[in-house]
């Protein structure tokens, strides 16, 4: 798999995850709230959940645009936005693990860590623009960016 294809797949995975998360929260906020890693937090607040779901869908739009265009600035912007969201999410939950069992907390932190690692690796892959070049492009080739 070329770097470009790997980058596109990774962006697609991030976008798909945000679509699923956003739709789940927007359409079924009470079901999302019942998830054990969420329900141990402060009281249910549909307004905040709807806002979070909408923000997840907005991030998915930007990630999907990056997948479609593979334009360097857009790809990097989408990935950094995803990374900022993932890091802040991980840091919040790392400070609020008390109600979870050790195994559940470890699994949750591993999941959130992967959500940070994937966009970080993709930023590294996209940073110099090499992975964004069209296959077979001569010289600097590919789309300007």
Q: Indicate the percent of residues in helices.
A: over 70%
Subunit arrangement of the protein: single chain
Q: In percent, how much strand structure appears in the residues?
A: under 5%
- Mean of the pLDDT scores? 90
The class by helix and strand makeup works out as mainly alpha
Shape: elongated
Count of separate DSSP helical elements: 6
Model regions low in confidence, pLDDT < 50 over at least 5 residues:
none
Total count of strands: 0
**Biggest sheet statistics:** none
> Could you tell me the radius of gyration in angstroms?
17 Å
Distance between the termini: 22 Å
What is the H-and-E element order? Answer: HHHHHH
Describe this structure in words.
- The structure is a single chain.
- With 145 residues, the protein is mainly alpha-helical.
- The protein is built from six helices and no strands.
- Helix 1 packs antiparallel against helix 4 (46-69), helix 4 (46-69) runs antiparallel to helix 5 and helix 5 (72-94) packs antiparallel against helix 6.
- The longest helix is centred in the N-terminal third of the chain and has 25 residues, at 3-27.
Write the layout of secondary structure elements.
Blueprint: H1 3-27, H2 29-33, H3 36-39, H4 46-69, H5 72-94, H6 102-126
